[in-house]
Prior knowledge:
This protein has four helices and twelve strands; from the N terminus they run βββββαβααββββαββ. The chain is mainly beta. The strands form three sheets. Strands 3-2-6-9-10-5-4 form a seven-stranded antiparallel beta sheet. A three-stranded antiparallel beta sheet has the order 1-11-12, with no helix packed on it. The protein is globular, with a radius of gyration of 18 Å. The two termini are 31 Å apart. The mean pLDDT is 94.
Amino acid sequence: xxxxxxxxxxxxxxxxxxxxxxxxxxxxxxxxxxxxxxxxxxxxxxxxxxxxxxxxxxxxxxxxxxxxxxxxxxxxxxxxxxxxxxxxxxxxxxxxxxxxxxxxxxxxxxxxxxxxxxxxxxxxxxxxxxxxxxxxxxxxxxxxxxxxxxxxxxxxxxxxxxxxxxxxxxxxxxxxxxxxxxxxxxxxx
Length: 189
């Protein structure tokens, strides 16, 4: 029997995404967010709060990078969600991570994160669900160590983790348990 839990944002998994932008003074800002993801073959959607420093930065620059953090950097990734650059201007420096300028957009690429999407802002507006930003993916950068022989990202090498909306935990992912558009074919007979 199912129990009614009321209205809650209960979906799983939720990606742990790192949004990187430049502050007005050129320093790096990184924000940890879970309310976003792919919304088209070349677009990402982010649902943010307009009070975030990241929101002001991406509106000003028209660009951001979106990275997948790995387990090796879970401490830093969580820190980016705990601390606001509005209150701690040297937030990124305190993390000990390193960034370089993207070659395609006016945003930083955090060197330690294995997968990064370079994005330009194509829409930013208040909606019924809050401040929504849509970014066009103009490039993808991946560490060679997470690629297979065909230069596709191998999720088992990415070493990513996801956010648990139920109890606010992080969970490692990576084990392949089926093949999309194949595993259910026997039911088509």
